[in-house]
């Protein structure tokens, strides 16, 4: 990492240098320590101290890279990662890299992948994935119904599925609410009760009833990293046509989202800002739920109460995802390549950079807050 | 191997005898090929039916081109751990293409894919399959397959098993992709491209012509130009030929080479030749009588680089196979070469076209100085009983760049993939009777020599200096894209990608007429397929 540069920039921004100094002198003095988690190729989980922007430790994940999808235990001390082409799940104590959990979802006759879908129960005892099973006959595949799979975390290194319930196809990110429902991010946003398998509609997307002039939304959550605002975001793109001529040129194009409050399990679905450029991942400012940030080729800041883009910062390359410090002051932009770009959330100016050992590719960029 | 087991390591134990059978020149008996399937494939596939008419699961319910079967076998080797010798693989492709191939008319309209001439914008693909299939594949890829409905359905499940992200792609995640694919698309494909057709049963029953003999060949090799040649095909086995080719480029230089050909399905000519040290491939289709072959020849190492190829069998009759160039500008004395065979008798270049001088004359090649007068239009050319056509024009009205749309790819440098280049030609047109260029009655004059250049496709491409970074075109019309990898000199360290216009400037008298093609210089495609 470019330590010197980071510190120079941090000095300009003010706040970071303070945190860094404190942490260097008295590492246990901080009550809540924030760590940035991401996975790089070939297959390492990095735990980055957000007070210094230095890699605190790096945990080797067995098997080939999956997608770098990460879920955290409620106390944030453990991280669970999809590995081996998203077939296997490994759990680590991020305080020491001890491997505490392993589940192989596939067998020789059943190929099971989870497309980003991994989360931990509200009480930290169970781990949930959405499995997409395909039966491997001798000379053909047979596609099976996807299902929510439940693992007992205390089963440790040889965890097996203890319950399954059928779910829709095309589910990506999932998240657990305080009521321990699992939000299923698919064509519509639904929630499943992992005890009973009961499913309720949270927010209609593919089946929304917005009228014929609205294009059915293209909703997709490769990442949904709402831990700092305790929420789940499913972003989408839609268009409002001016007539049934379906003229794509004159249509109004919008970014929208279904945003679930993970405290209540309730969702709002809104068109947020006009579609002017690609945003691959949105996060909410923990201080103001109207302020969103997005990343892809640009880092951008938006006030959705006014449908306005407040600031746009051109990035040096594509970054798939982003996250934010708990105080809302610092933005971390990551994914894709091997560096995390650090920005001031007020100005979006770049204030630092964290160099990793490999490409993050599609990996999550999570914040784990370990309370003292 | 099986999708689920790993018991095929035995496969190599019984290779010996069969490998020799594949090398021998005796015709491959159906029983031999069936035995290869039994020995190599039944770890996963199952046999049913009778010993005389066996049926193999997943295999016997599909028909494909030779390339299609080749791809299937590659997939079995690379993904399913099939253990098979090269000779056995060749024998199986031949047997399967011969017995479960496509009839000539079933390949019509899609031969560009077999000819690897893929710088083309496909039209006429049914909108449903265009969205479901042709968003990733060429339309020709699935249009050149015939399957039972069950097999089309199994293909959908294969996609989900092998490429689980399929249903999450853009244009998939916004719909019930899997249900549509299996319950709608597969059913439609089975109707549009059914396993059983009259065309195939008729072709299977038809007498096939042997393609041995002497062939009068005309073609184009990028960087070398148009050529004419004689190619002899000496039979070495059923559908197997040794080839010898000798000829002359338009600039007078000579070409020579040797190779061999295999004919699949009774009409699919596939040849490998080394011409002047360069390995080339020929993909042609024979007509029903087996007297004409038409297709494309391209570099074995770089299938994008190639040109048209035609061959007419020498049957002793007089024939003009090409007039080079194919046009005369009115009032200008021009050297013209008539390429053919058994050319005897009077040379007549058509109304108002005078032969000013016969430069050279043989039975297969006549060079004259000719001068045309009179109205624009096609002229009937004859030498004795042989006929051809020649275009006469007074003014070049427009130039068409071929290919009109092309994709090339960055490569080289430290990349695992070589650069994907493209070669260009310019076709001239006169305005025709209405005097207006770009209308239906424009007269196609033929390929014309051009000066080649590139420019940015639009303002954005100009701003990004795509013309500086994305590649270069040479005097022969061959475009070479830039090196692979991020370029720190570009905005966001972009790769040397770009959107360009490829410009052909053709001299016509005192003026120059330009035509433009559209070029997308893209990043590497890391998957190399037999058929795209």
UniProtKB/TrEMBL annotation, chain A:
Keywords, in A-Z order: Signal
Segment forming the signal sequence: 1-31
Gene3D superfamilies reported in the protein's UniProt record: YVTN repeat-like/Quinoprotein amine dehydrogenase
Coiled coil: none
Top-level taxon in the UniProt lineage: Bacteria
NCBIfam families: QH_beta
The protein, known as: Quinohemoprotein amine dehydrogenase, beta subunit
Lineage, opening ranks: Bacteria, Pseudomonadati, Pseudomonadota, Gammaproteobacteria, Oceanospirillales
Automatic annotation (TrEMBL), chain B:
GO molecular function terms attached to this record: electron transfer activity; heme binding
Gene3D superfamilies: Cytochrome c-like domain, Immunoglobulins, Quinohemoprotein amine dehydrogenase alpha subunit, domain 2
Record key words, sorted: Signal
InterPro entries in the record: Cyt_c-like_dom_sf (IPR036909), H-AmDH_asu_dom2_sf (IPR036718), Ig-like_fold (IPR013783), Ig_E-set (IPR014756), QH-AmDH_asu (IPR023887), QH-AmDH_asu_dom2 (IPR009111), QH-AmDH_asu_dom_III (IPR015183), QH-AmDH_asu_dom_IV (IPR015184)
Span of domain Quinohemoprotein amine dehydrogenase alpha subunit: 210-313, 318-393, 399-528
Keyword Secreted carried by entry: no
Quinohemoprotein amine dehydrogenase alpha subunit haem binding domain ranges (all copies): 32-200
Range of residues in the leader sequence: 1-30
Protein name listed in UniProt: Quinohemoprotein amine dehydrogenase
């Amino acid at each position: 990492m470019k330590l010197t540069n980071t510190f120079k920039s941090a000095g300009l921004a003010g706040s970071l240098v303070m945190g860094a100094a404190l942490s260097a002198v008295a590492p246990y003095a901080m009550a809540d320590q924030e760590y940035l988690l991401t996975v790089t190729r070939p297959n390492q989980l990095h735990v980055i101290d957000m007070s210094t922007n230095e890699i605190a430790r790096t945990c080797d994940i067995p098997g080939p890279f999956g997608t770098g999808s990460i879920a955290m235990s409620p106390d944030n001390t453990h991280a669970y990662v999809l590995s081996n082409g998203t077939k296997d799940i490994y759990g680590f104590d991020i305080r020491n890299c001890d491997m505490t959990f392993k589940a192989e979802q596939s067998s020789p006759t059943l190929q099971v992948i989870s497309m980003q879908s991994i989360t931990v129960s509200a009480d930290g005892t169970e781990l949930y994935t959405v499995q997409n099973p395909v039966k491997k006959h001798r000379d053909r595949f047979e596609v099976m119904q996807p299902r929510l799979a439940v693992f007992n975390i205390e089963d440790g290194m040889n965890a097996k599925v203890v319950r399954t319930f059928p779910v829709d196809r095309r589910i990506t990110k999932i998240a657990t609410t305080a009521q321990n429902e699992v939000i299923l991010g698919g064509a519509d946003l639904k929630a499943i009760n992992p005890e009973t398998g009961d499913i309720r509609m949270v927010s209609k997307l593919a089946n929304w009833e917005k009228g014929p002039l609205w294009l059915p939304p293209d909703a997709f959550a490769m990442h949904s990293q709402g831990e700092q605002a305790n929420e789940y975001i499913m972003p989408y793109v839609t268009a409002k046509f001016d007539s049934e001529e379906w003229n794509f040129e004159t249509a109004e194009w919008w970014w929208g989202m279904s945003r679930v409050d993970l405290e209540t399990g309730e969702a709002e679905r809104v068109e947020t800002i006009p579609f002017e450029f690609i945003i691959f991942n949105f996060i909410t400012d923990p201080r103001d739920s109207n302020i969103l940030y997005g990343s892809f080729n640009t880092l951008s800041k938006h006030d959705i109460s006014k449908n306005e883009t407040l600031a746009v910062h051109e990035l040096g390359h594509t970054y798939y995802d982003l996250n934010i410090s708990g105080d809302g002051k610092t933005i971390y932009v990551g994914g894709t390549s091997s560096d995390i770009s650090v920005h001031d959330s007020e100005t979006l100016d770049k204030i630092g950079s964290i160099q990793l050992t490999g490409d993050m590719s599609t990996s999550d960029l999570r914040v784990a807050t370990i309370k003292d | 191997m099986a999708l689920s087991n790993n018991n095929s390591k035995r496969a190599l134990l019984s290779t010996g005898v069969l490998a020799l059978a594949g090398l021998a020149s005796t015709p491959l008996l159906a029983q031999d090929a069936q035995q290869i399937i039994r020995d190599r494939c039944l770890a996963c596939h199952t046999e049913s039916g009778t010993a005389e008419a066996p049926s193999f699961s997943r295999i016997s319910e599909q028909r494909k081109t030779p390339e299609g079967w080749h791809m299937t076998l590659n997939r079995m080797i690379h993904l399913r751990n099939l253990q098979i010798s090269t000779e056995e693989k060749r024998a199986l492709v031949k047997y399967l293409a011969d017995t479960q191939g496509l009839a000539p008319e079933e390949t019509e309209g899609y031969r560009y894919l077999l000819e690897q001439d893929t710088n083309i914008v496909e039209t006429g693909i049914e909108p449903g399959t265009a969205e479901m299939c042709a968003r990733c594949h060429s339309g020709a890829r699935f249009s050149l397959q015939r399957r039972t409905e069950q097999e089309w359905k199994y293909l959908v499940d294969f996609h989900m098993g092998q490429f689980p992200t399929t249903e999450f792609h853009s244009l998939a995640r916004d719909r019930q992709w899997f249900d549509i694919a299996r319950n709608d698309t597969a059913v439609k494909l089975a109707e549009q491209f059914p396993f059983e057709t009259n065309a195939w049963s008729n072709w299977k029953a038809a007498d096939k012509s042997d393609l041995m003999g002497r062939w009068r060949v005309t073609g184009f090799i990028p960087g070398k130009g148009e050529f004419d040649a004689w190619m002899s095909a000496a039979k070495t086995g059923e559908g197997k030929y040794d080839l010898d080719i000798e000829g002359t480029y338009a600039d007078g230089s000579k070409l020579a080479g040797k190779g061999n050909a295999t004919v699949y399905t009774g009409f699919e000519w596939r040849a490998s030749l080394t011409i002047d040290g360069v390995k080339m491939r020929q993909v042609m289709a024979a007509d029903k009588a087996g007297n004409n072959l038409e297709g494309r020849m391209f570099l074995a190492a770089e299938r994008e680089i190639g040109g048209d190829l035609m061959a007419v069998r020498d049957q002793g009759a007089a024939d003009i196979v090409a007039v080079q160039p194919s046009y005369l500008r009115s009032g200008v004395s021009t050297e013209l070469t008539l390429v053919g065979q058994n050319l005897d008798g009077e040379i007549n270049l058509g109304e108002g076209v005078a032969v000013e001088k016969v430069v050279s004359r043989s039975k297969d090649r006549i060079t004259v100085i000719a001068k045309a007068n009179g109205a624009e239009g096609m002229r009937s050319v004859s030498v004795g009983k042989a006929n051809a056509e020649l275009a006469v024009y007074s003014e070049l009205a427009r130039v068409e760049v071929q290919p009109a749309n092309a994709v090339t790819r960055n490569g080289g440098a430290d990349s695992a993939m070589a650069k994907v280049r493209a070669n260009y030609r310019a076709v001239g047109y006169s305005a025709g009777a209405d005097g207006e260029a770009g209308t239906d009655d424009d007269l196609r004059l033929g390929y014309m020599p051009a000066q080649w250049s590139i420019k940015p496709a639009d303002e954005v491409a100009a701003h990004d200096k795509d013309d500086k970074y994305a590649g270069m075109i040479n005097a022969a019309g061959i475009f070479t894209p830039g090196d692979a990898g991020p370029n720190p000199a570009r905005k966001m360290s972009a790769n040397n990608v770009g959107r360009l216009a490829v410009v052909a400037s053709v001299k016509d008298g005192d003026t120059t007429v330009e035509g433009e093609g559209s070029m997308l210089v893209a990043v590497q495609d890391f998957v190399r397929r037999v058929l795209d």
